[in-house]
Design goal:
The protein is of the alpha+beta class. It has helices at residues 14-30, 43-52, 107-121, 136-144, and strands spanning 4-8, 55-60, 63-71, 90-98, 126-132, 148-155, 158-166.
């Protein structure tokens, strides 16, 4: 199995990302999970992610097989959640997707580890996200990664669990000694 390389998504990835969204929608539908559809995530969301520089892709060989968005946008419904962690800068994970043909190899875990590292690099100390209540694999993933279930919200497709996790601060670069002595 080829190694996964994670890099910022670029505008040239747009069509590939839209195809990834479609593949993920089809894969969820095959599992009877009615989480995503033609309304969300759509081209407008992908274009915004690309313009804001908040999307990252997982590449195996030449193929984009995963995507994740890390930003600080919290849906308005998050205001009603009983978050335990309220102090610190919050990063939010959106639109984690792994191509159905690449599922089952830990890529979602790798993408989430990247999201945590990237959030810490950007000065965040907390991560929040939501997961569809009828997507058991996603719920298991976030629990297994140490995320705390903080409660539920209702979005267009139904009930979503909100998760949170404290992340350690990114280490500051160690000052280098002046070699001139």
């Amino acid at each position: 199995m080829n190694q996964l390389t994670i890099r910022p998504a670029v505008v040239a990835d747009r069509d590939t990302l839209l195809a990834l969204v479609t593949a993920c929608i089809d894969g969820m539908r095959a599992q009877q999970i009615d989480q995503w559809d033609e309304q969300y995530p759509n081209a407008v969301a992908i274009d915004r992610d690309l313009q804001q520089g908040t999307a990252y892709v997982g590449v195996r060989g030449e193929a984009v097989v995963a995507m994740i968005v890390v930003n600080d946008y919290q849906d308005p419904e998050y205001a009603d959640v009983a978050w335990q962690y309220r102090e610190g800068r919050v990063a939010v994970v959106h639109r984690l997707m792994v191509h159905p043909e690449a599922e089952g190899h830990g890529l979602a875990r790798v993408m989430m580890a990247f999201a945590e590292e990237r959030a810490a690099e950007l000065g965040h100390t907390l991560i929040r996200l939501d997961a569809f209540s009828l997507n058991p694999r996603a719920l298991r993933l976030y629990h297994a990664l140490g995320y705390r279930d903080a409660g539920t919200i209702r979005l267009r497709k139904g009930i979503f669990h909100c998760f949170e996790k404290q992340i350690p601060p990114h280490p500051s670069p160690t000052p280098r000694a002046d070699a001139r002595g």
